[in-house]
Design brief:
Keywords: Membrane, Transmembrane, Transmembrane helix. This is Adenylate cyclase. GO terms for molecular function: adenylate cyclase activity. It comes from Amphritea atlantica. This protein is an alpha/beta fold. It has 4 domains: about 120 residues, no CATH class; about 240 residues, no CATH class; about 200 residues, Nucleotide cyclase, GGDEF domain (Alpha-Beta Plaits, 2-Layer Sandwich); about 70 residues, no CATH class. The chain contains 25 helices and 27 strands. Strands 19, 20, 21, 22, 23, 24, 25, 26 and 27 form a 9-stranded mixed beta sheet that branches. Strand 12 and strand 13 form a beta hairpin. The longest helix has about 35 residues. The radius of gyration is 48 Å and the shape is rod-shaped.
């Protein structure tokens, strides 16, 4: 009991220690990586794995570079691309996942040739140069069209100021300024000639890549010069609904100390974000979750109109040489433009995963319940059952987590809790093994000479421990003795006597151990043993009787060994009784012994002594006989022994009742009928039964005793008050 409480307390302390990194938000890197891996597994397993035709990626791929020339293209080509998208294909909106941070001074020779051929007179040089200016050509293509340009914030010490981010979506506010939203010190945006022509723009850089370099979350806002600007995907979303403002939403954090950002409202949509204004990217699947159309096919009018009509178009690149490939949970080479596409798709479907601030409370509750549950149950369970408990609880945690993921779009941390479950399981099993090993060693020292090793091991697994101070128990007690041992010992040399006793006691003790018995002591040639302690045994009566019968069966083999070594054969007598007795450590301050005492013990000793008088190798009490049917018992006598007022019925177990020796069962039944007739003073009928027994077993002492008694009683009638009780007052 004490060990169990100690293990429970240690498990709870371990749980509380594991909570510290959660409160401090400083989990070990290895466990954080495990959490990331579990997140990625869930994301890939529940991915939609089907294309979203509402969003189309116009791809500057290898084919486009081969046909249109190396990057960067003359911006007149990009203007041609926009003209085709809006005028020929009728797209809803277009966003550039690229930045035009420097003026384009290149000349498109094809455009120059066309202008010269179409001119009917020498053109005005300034007007002619304006027509050839690729930036103005692209600016004209952007004008009054729903086009969103991208830019990149800079967080270096250089504080680059190339271009302008456009219109902020949230002005500075004290509450928002308290949030850990990424802050930029510089910007790399498109040249003013392009930027002034469009109303919407957004950043495409990601300062919140996880520690393992994977794109799992993207900030929807960044702070620059005291104002907040949208990401490219958020800017496209606002442009779809012709909105220019974003409304932040706050809730009290777990401890109520301050207000935490939990969502932003844009375009009629509530977008769950964390306090850093970042949202988890709702990846639909691997690369190709959206239709890809080569940019050169659009420019040449070869694209399928049905794919582009009314679509949201993102213009980006998947070409490896242009370095826009990212590491994501679904692929290690994932086009950056498709990250924005996944965010827009999630917004359209209202399928946005989130880690609300209260998920920290959920995780803490998970950890506390797991710690208390396993710390209480595992020390009280076997290894098998505790393993099943641990696996079952881990399955429940996982099932709840998957339900929250799939149905509520909640991302509840799972890895740290599963690690605690595993740690507690291993810790409890290890400490349990340590305590069990120590218990077994202690018990082996106390009982190793008396009980079998398997019983010692079982005692070590007992939760309640072993009571040594003394208690009353229902047990079976056994005494055995060698007949004529004094005469035998006088005939043998000390070495021979030692050898004989070693052979005999080893075999008999082995049988007691096989039947889960405890050897109390050896008293010269006598053996005292009991069943039912220190390990409780609900079947102790059967085990004791089976041990006694097995000894009688083994005795001829023992005698063969003795004769082979020149030693005399032995005969034994066994007394067996079951009842309530005291068991525990008894003795003095100088010497203690784990033993039994009581009237039941004395009676078993008397039964062993009576085996000499009746010439029976085994005698058991009537109480034992009643408690253990299923054996063939020969009724021996009703006696009064020294120290007991009540008569005792004596029986000799002959065999198990289900043996095939039907003749034995019939003869024993006839003998028992003879005893009953004897007690009814029907002398003639009783004599006939005993004579029949002697005809089959001439040397039987019990039948001879009854015939002698009948002869005496026929001459001296005992009277009607006679109870057929024979008194034995000697020990």
């Amino acid at each position: 009991m004490k060990q169990r409480k100690t293990r429970t307390l240690m498990g709870i302390i371990l749980t509380l220690l594991m909570l510290i990194p959660v409160f401090q938000d400083s989990r070990p890197a290895l466990l954080q990586r495990f959490e990331y891996d579990l997140y990625d597994i869930r994301l890939k397993h529940f991915a939609k794995r089907e294309q979203d035709p509402r969003i189309v990626i116009v791809d500057v791929d290898e084919k486009s570079l081969a046909e249109q020339g190396r990057w960067p293209w003359n911006r007149a080509k990009l203007a041609q691309l926009l003209d085709q998208l809006f005028d020929h294909y009728g797209v809803a909106i277009a966003g550039f996942d690229m930045v035009f941070s420097e003026a384009d001074s290149s000349i498109d020779l094809e455009q120059l040739t066309t202008l010269l051929l179409e001119a009917d007179q020498i053109p005005d040089l300034q007007h002619f140069l304006q027509q050839l200016n690729p930036d103005q050509r692209l600016a004209a293509a952007i004008r009054e069209r729903p086009v969103v340009l991208g830019y990149s914030f800079d967080r270096s010490d250089r504080q680059l100021q190339a271009g302008d981010p456009g219109i902020a979506v949230i002005q500075s506010s004290p509450l928002l300024d308290q949030q850990p939203i990424p802050r930029a010190s510089g910007i790399i945006a498109s040249v003013d000639g392009l930027h002034s022509q469009q109303a919407y723009s957004g950043f495409f850089d990601n300062p919140m890549v996880d520690s393992d370099g994977v794109y799992r979350r993207v900030p929807m806002l960044q702070k620059y010069q005291g104002q907040y600007y949208p990401s490219l995907s958020l800017a496209i979303w606002l442009a779809l609904f012709d909105e220019r403002q974003v409304i932040p939403e706050f809730e009290a954090d777990l401890f109520g100390d301050h207000q935490a950002l939990v969502a932003i409202s844009a375009g009629g949509q509530k977008i769950p974000v964390d306090s850093s204004a970042a949202m988890l990217v709702p990846y639909r699947g691997g690369k190709g979750s959206f239709p890809y159309i080569s940019a050169t096919d659009v420019m040449n009018g070869l694209a399928e109109p049905a794919q582009l009509n009314g679509a949201i178009v993102l213009i980006g690149t998947s070409a490896a040489g242009l370095l826009d490939l990212r590491v994501t949970p679904v692929s290690s080479r994932y086009p950056g433009v498709e990250v924005h596409a996944n965010i827009l798709s999630g917004l359209l479907d209202n399928r946005i995963f989130s880690e609300p601030d209260y998920t920290a409370a959920v995780e803490i509750i998970q950890l506390l319940i797991s710690g208390i549950l396993l710390s209480v149950l595992i020390p009280r369970s076997s290894v098998t059952f505790s393993t099943l408990i641990t696996l079952g609880w881990a399955a429940c945690l996982t099932a709840f987590n998957l339900y929250a993921w799939q149905s509520l779009y909640w991302v509840i941390p799972l890895g740290y809790t599963l690690f605690l479950v595993l740690l507690l399981y291993l810790f409890q099993q290890t400490t349990g093994y340590f305590f069990e090993t120590r218990n077994v060693k202690q018990l082996a020292g106390q009982f190793g000479h008396y009980i079998p090793p398997e019983v010692v091991r079982e005692l070590g697994r007992q939760e309640e421990g072993v009571h040594l101070s003394g208690e009353n128990r229902d047990m079976t007690i056994f005494f055995s003795d060698i007949r004529g041992f004094t005469r035998i010992s006088e005939q043998l040399a000390p070495q021979q006597l030692t050898r004989m006793m070693n052979i005999y006691l080893t075999e008999m003790t082995h049988i007691i151990h096989l039947q889960h018995g405890t050897v109390d002591k050896y008293i010269g040639d006598a053996v005292m043993a009991f069943w039912g302690a220190p390990l409780k045994d609900d079947d102790h009566v059967r085990h004791g009787l089976d041990a006694a019968l097995a000894m009688l069966q083994q005795l001829p083999i023992v005698n063969q060994r003795l004769v082979a070594e020149g030693l005399p054969e032995v005969e034994i007598g066994i007394g067996l009784h079951a009842g309530i007795m005291s068991v525990g450590n008894m003795g003095s301050e100088f010497r203690m012994a784990y033993t039994v005492m009581g009237d039941a013990v004395n009676l078993a000793s008397r039964l062993e002594g009576l085996t000499r008088f009746y010439g029976c190798p085994l005698l058991v009490s009537g109480e034992l006989c009643e408690r253990l049917p299923g054996y063939i018992y020969r009724q021996i006598d009703r006696v009064q022994v020294k120290g007991r007022l009540e008569p005792v019925e004596l029986f000799q177990p002959m065999s198990v009742a289900n043996t095939e020796d039907a003749d034995l069962a019939e003869r024993v039944a006839s003998f028992n009928q003879g005893v009953a007739l004897y007690r009814e003073q029907q002398w003639a009928s009783s004599r006939e039964r005993f004579q029949q027994w002697l005809a089959h077993t001439p040397s039987d002492s019990v039948a001879t005793i009854y015939l002698q008694r009948i002869a005496e009683l026929e001459q001296n009638s005992p009277g009607k008050e006679w109870h057929a009780v024979f008194s034995h007052q000697l020990k």
